[in-house]
Structures are given as C-alpha cells and as structure tokens.
Amino acid sequence: MEILAHYIAGEWISSTSEEYKDDVNPSDFGQVLAKIPLGDESTVQRAVEAANNAFKGWKHTPGPGRAEFMHRVANLLAQHRQDVARVVALEVGKPIGEALAEVDRGVVILRYYAEEAVHPMGSVIPSQVPGSLQFTVREPVGPLGVITPWNFPVAIPLWKISPAIAFGNTVVWKPAETSSMVAVHLMKIFAEAGLPQGVINLVLGSGSKIGKALVASDGIRAVTFTGSEGVGMGIAQQAAQRNIKYQLEMGGKNAAIVLPDADLRLAARLIASGAMRYAGQKCTATSRVVVVADVIDSFIDHLTEEVKALPVAPAIDANSAVGPLISEDALSKVSYYADEGAKSGEVVLGGKRAQGSLLDRGYFFEPTVIRNVSPDAKVAQEEIFGPVLVVHEAKGLDDAINIANNSRYGLSVSMFTRDINAILSYIPNIEAGMVRVNADTTGVDPHAPFGGMKSSSSHSREQGPAAVEFFTDTKTVQINPVTG
User: Fold this and answer.
1) Does residue 93 contact residue 325 with C-beta atoms inside 8 Å?
2) I want to staple 146 with a disulfide (CB 3.0 to 4.6 A). Which of 29, 173, 272, 363 is the partner?
3) Are 323 and 177 found together in one domain?
4) pLDDT digits 0-9 by tens, 140-197
5) For 235-285, what is each residue's pLDDT tens digit?
6) Is residue 393 part of a domain?
7) Among the listed residues 70, 95, 75, the one whose alpha carbon sits nearest the alpha carbon of residue 85
8) Where are the active-site residues found (predicted)?
C-alpha cells in the first residue's frame, strides 16, 4: 500500500496534520490502494508561496524552453502509458480500455499546448498617431489554483495545467481526494521530466478545507475548476469578491434527439455508449433521449439490445465497459434516482444494484433505461452521474428541441438524422455549448473549445484557442516617435 504525499517546491512533503484517509478501489471496496494525506491551510499556503516564487522565473522562460519541457512530459507519459492507465482503472473505476484512451489523450493535450507555447500571440493595431507603433502582447496571469474532479484524473488536469504552464503561469493543483493516487503518478512524471521547482505544486486533501483555502489565498490570481454546480458557484462568489479570474465547468443533463429518418441502430449504439460506459460518470454523458413517436418503440428495442451488450465488470477487466460507481454514496444516489424513475415511469432495463461473484465486492449498478417519464420529473431534471437513461416521446422536431432545452443545464446535445433542414433548425435553437449530429454527447477534440451554457459553465471556455483567453492577460503597448 502506497503512502501518498504532497509535492511542493520540488519536494515530496508528508502530511502536516498527520491525518490520512484510505483510498479504496471502487471495483473491490475491501482493497485499500493507498493512504491519502489530508492537507490543511498551512499546506496550501506553503504551496502558494512556492508557486509565487517560481512565477518570477517561469514567466520569463522563453516559450521554446517551456515547449521543450512539455514535450519531455508527453514522451514520458507515453512511456508510462500502461502503468498510469492501470492506476486510473484501480483508483477511479474507469474501465481499462477507456483509461488507456484517456492517457493517450493526455499525451495529445501536452503536445498540443507545447506547440501553443511557441505560436505568435498578440497583434499590431494601427494608431491614430503618425509614426506610432501600437500592439498587444499576451502575458501570464500569475499563480493559478487548479481544482480537478476524479472522473477524468489524467485528461482534465492536463487540459488545465498544460495551457497554464505553456503560457508562463505557475500552478497549485488540488485534485479530488478519490483521484489522489493518479495525481501523484502524474507529478512523478512531471518531476522526472525536469519540472522547475515550484512551477507545479500538488496539495492533497478535502475540497471543503483546502479547496476553499486555495481560492481565498491572496497569492492566487485565477482559479479553474471542474466539479459540482454547488461548489462551483461558491468558488465564483469567492473569486468575484477578490476580483480574480475564474473558470467553471459544472453539471450536465445531456440529451440526444432521434428523428424518424435516423439510422436507428447507429443512434442506439452511440446513445447506449454515451449513457452507460464508465457507468455514466461523465459530465457529457447522455442522460436523456428524446425520440419522435413514430420510431420510439423500434428505437427502444435497438437501445435495449445495445445496452445489454455492454459488459458490467471490474475496471481492470479488459472486457469491462460499464465499471463501478466511484463510492458507496454514489451508489446510494443512483439507486435513489432509479427508484424515483420507477415510480413515475416504466423501467425497461436494470434499475437495481448489479450482482455477481465479482460485482458484489464493488459499487456496481445495472445499466438502467426508463421510459414514459415526464420531462419535469426529478430523474429527468437532476444530474445523476450514473448509468441511468430516461426516454421521452416527442411529437416532432420542434417538440423534441423544446424537451431537450427543458433543463437548467446546457452542456452537450446530439441529434440523429439525415435531414439537413432539421439540422439547420436544430443548431441555432438548441441551448448547449456543444452541439453534435450523428455522434454521442461525450467528448470533444482537445484542440476545440469545451464548455456549456446556462448552469453548466461559467462565462469562459476551456481547451483550444479559448485557453489563451483565460490563461493570459492582454497588455496594450504604444510607442510614439520622438521628433525634433
């Protein structure tokens, strides 16, 4: 069993409070994988000081030098691919196939932002003053707080940390407790690549304690967060009071629309995958499907067939597609919503805890499909973060769009159709930050902006060119000639 540690100013630091928490394998809750040190406010302050000290040098490191470092990290992550993916599968219950794909995505993210570090930034602006040179430059914001969730323990930290350091910022990183082991493995790779002292600092522990301390610290100039809506809105209030930048990615209640002309088998396969893989524990997972009445029965038949074909198994099993929920609390929450759905609708498939010789030792729940549920029901409105999919019936395209928009969230939506006119109506009328056609609702390319509307996100986007806006500030420069 591994005893984890914080990483501050280039050193591994044991728990300052001498408090530890068990890190449990969700596929086998009898297996304790590691001991997590519970940092406190003094741990955070030490990390913030290290980030501020490092910022003075890192911001002046030439872009090509930062890029070279990031390429070394990418190469090492690729070399350690199997080991990191195994830790992901064991610690957060992500099926090993998806864990490997996530590590590969992390490599792509690192390489993309390594190249961004050497791209031109800024612009030349014509001046009203004759002979004057006016231009903008982009400069790093400063030391950043990076708060990440457990469900993508490689990709999400890297799509926040990579642009941060590529553009000259330094980082204090607070991962979710339940992904601490993965975070430590990533920090070891950063260190092996020659991470300068204090550029990235890792603090482990409770979000309610050290997360709040991080956002409140005077030494932090911006915060990027992915997690629950409640915590995110609290961060927004803290950050606004301090007049610092903040970036929030929060909940989703993502819908897929199926029109009568759709390829029903394709739609069923992709919707089943988007809803059930990794036990639905993705902010972009499909949790609602809106089907036009003409084809709803045929679609549900195909959907049931596709869902049944997804193996429920421990995450380390090469055949696993669904995997466990992250914790006992998550299992109880999913069970509650499945029961609520059964009261207000018809359970087509699943609806209870999964059982079996290997499944009884973990937090497994059967992939669940529920139909005839009101669009206003709890199970159709609230984020569940589990393998539960509700099916709604629509009269036609306009009705389907209205049902899909009937949510306080607006992260990702997909529609299945061959009708270009329907697509052209759907795109401007759907209320979501990511709009997809004939694809599932999960994922987006790492070089494309990621984010939602309404309560899903704050005012900014992550990834791609959008990252420049958040992780840098603009400085406008004017140089006038001296005459005479």
Assistant:
1) yes
2) 173
3) no
4) 999 999 999 999 999 999 999 999 999 999 999 999 999 999 999 999 999 999 999 9
5) 999 999 999 999 999 999 999 999 999 999 999 999 999 999 999 999 999
6) yes
7) 95
8) 249
- Is 249 one of the catalytic residues? yes
Render 329-372 in DSSP notation, one character per residue.
HHHHHHHHHHHHHHHHSEEEE--SB--STTTTTTT-B--EEEES
Tokens 């270009």 sit on residue: 420
Burial 399-417 (b: 16+ CB within 10 A, else e): ebbebbbbbebbbbbbbbb
242 and 153 in a single domain? The answer is: yes
Of these residues, 249, 306, 340, 393, which one is catalytic?
249
pTM of the model: 0.96
Sole residue written with tokens 């899909």: 404
Domain C-terminal end among 216, 250, 284? 250
Q: Is 453 helix (H, G, I), strand (E, B) or coil?
A: strand
Cα 446 to the center of its chain, rounded Å: 12
The band of 308, judged by pLDDT with boundaries at 50, 70 and 90, is very high
Six token digits for residue 310:
């997804």
Query: In this predicted model, what pLDDT tens digit does every residue of 30-79 receive, in sequence order?
Result: 999 999 999 999 999 999 999 999 999 999 999 999 999 999 999 999 99
- Are 258 and 154 found together in one domain? no
Average pLDDT over residues 293-307: 98
Percent helix, strand, coil in the chain, to 5, is 40, 25, 35
The answer to whether 4 touches 181, Cβ cutoff 8 Å, is yes
**CATH number of the domain where residue 336 is located:** 3.40.309.10
Condensed to tens digits (0 to 9), the pLDDT of residues 435-460 reads: 999 999 998 898 999 999 999 999 88
Position 482 in a domain: no
Domain's final residue, options 250, 277, 300: 250
CB 100, CB 194: distance < 8 Å: no
Best CA proximity match to 66, nearest among 202, 171, 188: 171
The span from the CA of 81 to the CA of 158, in Å, is: 15
How many domains does one find in the chain? Answer: 2
* Strand ordering across the sheet containing 434-437: 346-349, 368-371, 388-394, 286-292, 254-258, 412-416, 434-437
On whether both 259 and 246 belong to a single domain, the answer is no
Q: What is the extent of the structural domain holding 415?
A: 254-437
**Which secondary structure element, helix H or strand E, spans residue 225, and what is its range?**
strand 222-226
Angstrom distance (rounded) from CA 127 to CA 478: 8
